[in-house]
Amino acid sequence: MQVNDPAFYDQVIRRITRIILVLGVAGAIGVAAAKGLKSGLAFLIGSAISYTSFHGWRRLVDVLVPTAKKRTPTFFVFRLVALVAIAYAIIKILGLSIAAAALGLLVSGAAVVLELVYELIYAS
Fold it and tell me: Which class for 38: exposed (0-12), middle (13-18), buried (19 or more C-beta within 10 A)?
C-alpha cells in the first residue's frame, strides 16, 4: 500500500486507536495490581483523556485538509478543557493518584511510538 493512499492513514489511525485501548486497559490492570484499585482507576481516567485528546487532534488535522468537511477547532478545545476539568474534579473528590492519572495521559504518545516501530519493522 502506498504511503500517499488515504486507506494507509485510515489503517494507521485504527491501529493506533487499538493500541491506545489495549495500553489503557492493560496499564490500568497493571497499576491496579501494583498500587491498588484507586491508582488503576486514575490511570484509566488518564488513558481516557489521552484517547479523547488523540481523536481531537486527529479531527483538528482533518479540518486543515482542504478537501475535508470543515469543522471548527473551537469545539475541540472546549471539549478537551471540559474533559480535563471533569477528570481533575473526579480525581480530587475520590482522592485518586494524580501521578497514575498523569502516567495514563502518556498512553497515546506510547501508542504512536509503537505504531512507528510497527511501520519500521513491517513497512514494505
Answer: middle
Give the pLDDT confidence of 65-80 residue by residue, as tens digits: 766 565 666 777 787 7
pTM over 0.70: yes
Measured distance CA(84)–CA(62) in Å, rounded: 23
Inter-residue contact 107 to 50 (CB < 8 Å): yes
SS3 content of the chain, % helix, strand, coil (to 5): 85, 0, 15
Q: For 26-58, write each residue's pLDDT tens digit.
A: 999 999 999 999 999 999 999 998 998 898 888
Q: How many whole angstroms separate alpha carbon 124 and alpha carbon 111?
A: 21
Is residue 46 within 8 Å of residue 100, measured between CB atoms?
A: yes
pLDDT at 4 exceeding the cut of 90: no
Task: Name the grid cell of 116.
Answer: 512507528
C-alpha cell at 90: 473526579
Count of other CB atoms within 10 angstroms of residue 111: 23
**CA angle, 10 as apex, 6 and 16 as ends, to 5°?**
145
